[in-house]
Amino acid sequence: MSVETITTISPITNKPVLTRTGISAEDLQQLPVTATEAFLKYRKTSLKERQDIVKKALKLLNDKQDELAKELTEQMGRPIAYTAKEVTTAVKRGEYLLKISEDALKDTDGEAEKGFKRFIRKVPVGPCLILFAWNYPYLILVNSLIPALLAGNSVILKPSPQTPTIVEHMASIFSEAGLPDNVIQYFHCGSPLIIESIVRDPKVALVCFTGSVAGGLATAKAAADRIVNVGLELGGKDPAYVRGDVDVAWAAEEIVDGAHVGPVVSKRSKETIEAHIKDALDKGAKDLTPENETFKSPPSEGNYIKPTLLGNVDHSMTVMTEETFGPVIPVMKVKNDEEAIKLMNDSEFGLTASIWTKDTAKVAELAEDVEAGTVFVNRCDYPSPDLAWTGWKNSGRGVTLSKFGFEKFVKLKS
After folding, report:
1. In 3D, which of 273, 250, 344, 263 has the Cα closest to residue 299?
2. What is d(CA 77, CA 260) in angstroms, rounded to the nearest whole number?
3. Cα(380)–Cα(255) distance, integer angstroms
4. What does the pLDDT average to over 361-368?
5. Per-residue pLDDT at 8 exceeds 80
6. What's the mean pLDDT in 18-39?
7. Angle at 314 between CA 234 and CA 341, to 5 degrees
8. How many CA atoms lie within 13 A of 387 on its CB side?
9. I want to staple 309 with a disulfide (CB 3.0 to 4.6 A). Which of 99, 176, 275, 288 is the partner?
């Protein structure tokens, strides 16, 4: 197996900003071996010791916010205000998981029986492979890394080639915080075959994947010839239903906030977005985007697409059914609540959805019928660390965040 050279292209300029050397076959095979050796020692540490390490690491991460935000913007293109917010939100999310860790990992007592002590203990699963995406890399990583370490596991991290330095910083931060050697390892890779090879390794006790549906299915398939848990966080379409009783201008402003983006991540992504828009227009959609001076002269370099508002759309158009992953909002009229819910559920995805209304009694009924892991009311795109983050249908399998986010990182022993 030849060693890759992995190049990160900035979507701001479409020029290379850094390169990394991919992992060799020998080093790839050694990763789970070393992770197992580190795990056997680390699992013996107390929860209090692990909590102290995580607390120190989160403070170090917060202290490096400005440096990390600037670098993240360069690599994946999100405006600096949003990348800085991502780092601070990742810290807050980690702090919440730290706060609930004792309760999430404590023993569960069995029924009392004279002469016996009966309980269920949560023990770490072993080396965890965490494969994560570029779009919110610190947030996505924290979702799995923090509970994995608090539960007593070692981890192997594989970042997106778009944001490769995340793992380097996190490994350095945790080392400075006192995490024992090799409890965190990482590798750089762009080849699906290499990823599938380590997924198949019997020493890997858990696989956590965040990315596309195709990537998730390939990961699950690679793991299918052995008994191993594979957590998947995949795509989403995130429908928003605005009922007639709500202030439409206010709802529109809030919904648009969930669609902000800088330059899209790659030329290929830009081409996909343009194809979705063209498909809709060819099938009768109307471009309702208002005139704006800032849209007329986008930067000559980079993958910029003007914000686009489409009307007269329907579910024959890809923009209504597939992930567009860009600054495009299609708007479709519906006759009533029943039609709205039917259309919201007419999707292969089920990550999030939102309903906008003043009728708090009715919305509880409507939300019950929405096929999504998270249903927001009068807001969107605000995951909360105390609530389970989970996808339905092709949006994934398994849970992160909340006390339930610890479950896949432990085995039960009675």
Report:
1. 263
2. 12
3. 7
4. 96
5. yes
6. 98
7. 65
8. 11
9. 288
Q: Are 185 and 33 in contact (CB under 8 A)?
A: no
pLDDT digits (tens, 9 = 90+) for 51-84: 999 999 999 999 999 999 999 999 999 989 899 9
Residues 17 and 95 in one domain: yes
Given a contact cutoff of 8 angstroms between Cβ atoms, the answer to whether 6 and 161 are in contact is yes
User: Which residues touch 52 (CB under 8 Å, ≥6 apart)?
Assistant: 178
Beta bridge partners of 184: 155
Residue 342 burial (CB count, 10 A): 12
Closest CA to 382 of 214, 234, 254: 254
Is 188 in the same domain as 317? no
* Within-domain flag for 229: yes
The answer to whether residue 385 is domain-embedded is no
Residue 76 lies in a domain: yes
pLDDT of 262 above 80: no
C-alpha to C-alpha distance for 388 and 351, rounded to whole angstroms: 11
Burial of 350 (0-12, 13-18, 19+ CB in 10 A): buried
**Residues 142, 173: one domain?**
yes
Query: In the numeric block, which tokens belong to residue 176?
Result: 């400075």
Q: Which 8-state DSSP code applies to residue 266? A: -
- What is the tens place of the pLDDT at every residue in 78-123? 989 899 999 999 999 999 999 999 999 999 999 999 999 999 999 9
Residue 386, in any domain of the structure: no
Of 113, 354, 116, 132, the C-alpha closest to 251 is: 354
Asked if residue 279 has pLDDT above 80, the reply is yes
Task: Evaluate if pTM is beyond 0.90.
Answer: yes
How far is residue 298's CA from residue 114's CA, in Å, rounded to a whole number? 76
Range of the domain at 184: 5-234+395-413
Q: Give residues with Cβ within 8 angstroms of 62, minimum separation 6.
A: 87, 88, 91
| Dmax (CA) of the chain | 79
| Total count of residues recorded for the chain | 414
Rounded Cα–Cα distance for residues 410 and 206 (Å) = 10
Pull the structure tokens for residue 23: 């992992």
Residue 180 CA to residue 339 CA, distance in Å, equals 56
Task: Supply 368's token pair.
Answer: 């019950």
* Distance, C-alpha 256 to centroid of its chain: 20
CA 61 vs CA 173, 249, 406: distances in Å: 7, 38, 22
